[in-house]
Amino acid sequence: NINRGDVGGTTIFSVMSGLAVQHNALNLSQGFPDFDGPAPLLERVQYYLTHGFNQYPPMTGVDSLRYAVRDKVADLYGAQVDGDTEVTISAGATEALFCAIAAVVRAGDEVIVFDPAYDSYAPVVALQGGKTIHIPLSAPDFKIDWNQVAAKLSDRTRLIIVNTPHNPTGAVCGEADIAALRTLAEHHDFYILADEVYEHIVFDGQAHLSMCRYPDLYERSFVVSSFGKTYHVTGWKVGYCVAPPDLSAEFRRIHQFVNFTVNTPVQLGLADFLHAHPEHHLQLPDFYQRKRDYFLTQLQGSKFTWQASAGTYFQLIDYGALSAELDVDLAKSWTEQLKLASIPISVFYQDQNCAPKSLLRFCFAKDTETCWHDCAANLTVF
Ligand code: PMP
Ligand code: GLN
């Protein structure tokens, strides 16, 4: 009973992680590191936890963290946003995605999403009474066909959800994508929800093209990110939304009744760490590119095929030369028999006729020494 983008069924991430535990498999399915966050960050959080910083913070997040996000956005993307009126701390990116969608989508509104689409978007749109318009992307490079987007725009189009770097494919938007989006925005009145949770994990010298860089796009955007990805602490569930004051006000109208706010000691610890260690996020591309390359080196000589991931900590592998089994079935049988869990890609497509049938996603946010030894051992069956 896997969720396929409607309201109901169980998210693939719970299904595969549950199976991995049940069968004692190496879990490269759900995306999370097998190493801890940086020690100075853990120390700062520990400090606040044990020094009386355990009551409600402001609804929008603590000042120091909002200002740290403001400064980062200025440094990296050249955007001057107001830390008081344009930055809101959320309970993970997931809550921010919910609040942004709930802030603007009303019954009958249309929301454009690109398949394979991260699985929390469509159910939230449906809960609002909105309708997702799915534009399928094709392997191996999953480039957006902007002519198709133009053709799908209508009077009811309220929102376009752009996820770059893209989960699950690892594709990233380039200058041509931004140019095409800007052209559409000149003539159509939609909002943009930019899911940029992997903003700091972009490879091969490419730049992350945040919506914050482009004033004409930013003025209609909710830009969402996650500290969980950046600081190797997915279990903390702290993220944020940067949006112009009018959109942030609408966002906060929802956020105040969904979560109200996010735990104090983690916010304060993150703020200190962001100020003291900007090198952490600047080194992430290198850090994860080495892990990607190591993983791909392990697969050299196998019958798998792939296109190297351009961003995120996920790599797609095509097993089509080895098996005709459907990805959902193969992901399950590999978990049970090979003790190796991954994520099937077809579940992220609304139209199964458009879905690639032999792609699995592997998370390479793992400690190479301990993890890849096991992984390679499992995969040498091929
Ligand atoms: N969007 C995408 C594309 C993701 O991969 C994730 C990570 N699970 C999220 C949103 C949610 O992030 P968080 O864990 O901070 O809620
Ligand atoms: N974003 C993570 C992934 O893609 C999982 C998030 C979740 O478990 N909901 O694997």
From TrEMBL:
Top-level taxon of origin: Eukaryota
Record-stated family: Belongs to the LysR transcriptional regulatory family.
Protein task: Trans-acting transcriptional regulator of RuBisCO genes (rbcL and rbcS) expression.
Protein name: Probable RuBisCO transcriptional regulator
Gene that produces this protein: ybdL
